[in-house]
C-alpha cells in the first residue's frame, strides 16, 4: 500500500450561501434538542398548548436563550433560533413584545459592559484567563405588566463555563430578587404559567412550589442553535417529550453530600476531598434515603406507558425482556426503561442501587407495544475491593429493578449467587496520601434496607433466578506485557526519526507570532484548538488538526486568505470586534465556516437515546471531514459530582454508565466517518473549575475506579476512541497528565486503549511538578499545545537519563499511528 499526502485546501466556503450540509444538520440538532428536553411537571393539562394560542413570554431566555456554555465548548454557528422566534415559527402569538424589547436593551448594555471589563482586565493579565474566568451573569428584566394572553411562559436562564465554578447565591443557583418578583407578578397576572429552565446545570426550584398556577415545568437545558424551534415543537406537541434526568434534582443545594466542601465553598480550592466516596448523585440520595425533587431517570410524557417485565435471564450477562405499551389515547411517545441492581450486604459497603442498563423505545402510537431487551455483563454489577485489587461479586441475592426512573422502579427479579465471584484481578493504582473520612452507613441500617428491598421484591412476585458464574473466567491483567504498537510500518517510520524530531512531535506545532506557546491555535483550520507538529513531514507524518466540542465543532466563522496565506484575527481581536468573529472583517478573500451548534452534553444524555447520539456523532464527523479536522476534542465525560461545577453542561451525568454509554455512542458515530476521531476528556477527576490547574482530587481508589474512571473504561472498551485528553488537576497528589497509573496501567493495560493520549491545553505551564518528560513517562504522548520549554525539558531529561528515548519513541509511535488514520492521505494498493 502506498500512502500520499493530499494537498490541504483552504477549508470552508467563499460564499455565505447556505451549504448543503447545513439544513439536514440543523434538523438533526433540532431533533436531538427536542428529545433532550425533560418535562418535569405537567398538571391541569397545561401542555401541549393549542396552536395559535396567545403567549406572554418573559425571562432573559426569551430572546437571549443560552444555547450552550462558555469557553472552549462554545460553537460559532450561523444563527441561533431563540425561543421568541421558535414560538412565532410554530404559529403562536407573543403578546409581551414591549417587555422583550425593554429587556433586549438591558441585555445589550450588560454584554457590552462585560466585554469592556474583560478587555480592561486583559491589559494586566492573559486574555484567555481574563475571558474564561469572567462569567457573564444574565441581567434582570424589567417589571411585568398584564397582556392579553392565554398563558405566560417564563424562561429562567443561567450561563456557566470553563474556568469558574458556580455559586450557591442569588443570580446563580437561586433567583435574583427581581426574578422572584417577576415570577410572583406573572403568577398573579396570569392564570396559567409554564416555567422553562434554560440552564446547563441545576438551579434551586423550591420557588416553583409556592405558585399553583405554574402548571408545567420544562427543563430546556442548553439546546444548541435550534433550541427555540425544539422547545416550540414540545410545547405544541409536535414532539412529545421523552427526555429523562441524568442527575438527581435535590430539594435543596445543602442536600448534596459534598455541598459545603465543594470547590470554593469551604475556601479551599487546592484540595478537594471526595469524602462521599462512592455515594455520588443518586447513589447517595437513594442509599441515605434523602427525599429529592426529581429522581434520577425521571421525566414525564404527554402519554402514559405501561412497563411489564416479560422475562429476566442471567448468566455471564443479564438480560431483561420488557414490554412497553403506550396506554394513552392521544399521543405517540417514547419511553426509557432503566434497569438498576441492588447488591447484597457483605464485606464491601455498597450503594443501594446502581444503574446497569437502559434502552429507549421507538415512537409508539397509542395502544402500540414494543419489547425491549436490555442486556448487560455481570461485570457492571461488580464492586472493587481495594484490599485485594479485585473486581468482585459477593455472594448473596442481587435485586433487578425495572422502571422508568429510579424512584419508579420495582424489583422484578432476584439473582442468587451462591459463591463469591472474582471477575477481574488488577493492581492498585493512585494510592491515597492523605486520610479520608469516608461517608458510610452503619451495617445494621444497610441490612435492614436490603431485607426490606427483598421483601418488596417478593411482594412483587419477583422470580428467584440462580446466577451461575462458574463458566466465567477471571480476567488477570498482565502489566508486564507493555503495550506495543501493532503496525510495523509505523514503527519503521518512527525508528527513522532522530531525537529532535521525536521531541518536536511530542508537542503541538509552532505557529509564527504565538509567543512561548507553540500551537495554541490551529493554523491550517482557523479557530481550531491546535495541531500536531510537522517535524516529520518529509517522512510522511502530517500535522493533524484538533478542534473543540462538545456542543458542535468550534471553528472561527470567518477568516481571510491573502497572498495564499491564511489571515485570522486573534481570539482577543475577534472578541473585541463582535464577540467571536461574527461581523469580523477578515483580511483578503473571506472564507466562511458555519458549524452546527448541537445541544450541550448534559442535554444529549437526557435523550437516553444511544442511536440518536450516534447519528449526531455522524453529523459531527461529516463536519470534521468538511473542515479538515482529524480529532474532535470531545466528548467531555466527567462526572457531575456537585451541581456547582462550572463545566457540568459539557458533561453527561452523575452516573458513569450513562456517561460511558453516551461517549461510546458519540464515538461510534464520529469514527464511522473515515479519518475522524474523538478525544474523550478530561481524564480524570476534573470535577471542579476553580483552580482547575492546581486542585488535587483526593479520593479512594474504589471511588476512582467505580465512579470517575468507569465511564472512560466503558467508552474505551465499547468504542475505541482515537484519543484521550488528560485533565489539569492532580489525582491523589500526581498531575493527571503525569499519571502513569491512569494513562498506562488503567487505560492501556487494563482496558486496551490503543489511541493517543494528549494533555489539556497548557498543562505543563503551571509549575515544575508537571513536565513534558513526565507526560512521556506516564504514556501521555502529546503535550498540547506545547512550549519551547517542553522541548528543553525533554532534551535535558534525555541527557540525564531520567527520560528514556524508548519511552519517547513509544509515545510518538502511538501518535503517528493516529496521524496515519487521518483523512489527510490518499492510499493506493
Ligand atoms: C479545555 C479543553 C479544551 C482545550 C482546547 C482547555 O482550556 O479545558 O477542554 O479542549 O482548552 O481548547
Characterization of this structure:
- InterPro entries: Cellulose_deg_GH3 (IPR050288), Fn3-like (IPR026891), GH (IPR017853), Glyco_hydro_3_C (IPR002772), Glyco_hydro_3_C_sf (IPR036881), Glyco_hydro_3_N (IPR001764), Glyco_hydro_3_N_sf (IPR036962), Ig-like_fold (IPR013783).
- By secondary structure, the chain is α/β, with parallel strands linked by helices.
- It has 3 domains: 22-243, Rossmann fold (3-Layer(aba) Sandwich), CATH 3.40.50.1700; 294-476, Immunoglobulins (Immunoglobulin-like); 489-828, TIM Barrel.
- It contains 20 helices and 35 strands.
- The strands form 9 sheets. The chain has a 6-stranded mixed β-sheet, sandwiched between helices. It has a 6-stranded mixed β-sheet with strand order 23-24-28-29-31-34. The chain has a 5-stranded mixed β-sheet with strand order 14-13-18-19-21, covered by helices on one side.
- Helix 2 packs across helix 6 and helix 14 (656-671) packs parallel to helix 16.
Strand content: 15-25%
Oligomer: single chain
**How much helical structure, as a percent, in the residues?**
25-40%
Supply the CATH superfamily name of the largest domain.
Glycoside hydrolase, family 3, N-terminal domain
Kindly identify the CATH topology of the largest domain: TIM Barrel
Whole-angstrom Rg: 26 Å
Shape, please?
globular
Query: Ligands bound here?
Result: beta-D-glucopyranose
The pLDDT mean sits at 94
CATH architecture of the largest domain: Alpha-Beta Barrel
Low-confidence stretches: 512-516
Secondary structural class: alpha/beta
Largest sheet geometry = 6 strands, mixed
- Please list the strands of the largest sheet in the order they lie side by side: 2-7-6-5-3-4
CATH class division of the largest domain: Alpha Beta
- What is the number of domains? 3
- Rounded to the nearest angstrom, the distance between the terminal CA atoms is 4 Å
DSSP, total strands: 35
Count, helices = 20
Organism: Schaedlerella arabinosiphila
Protein name: Beta-glucosidase
GO biological process, one term: carbohydrate metabolic process
Family: Belongs to the glycosyl hydrolase 3 family.
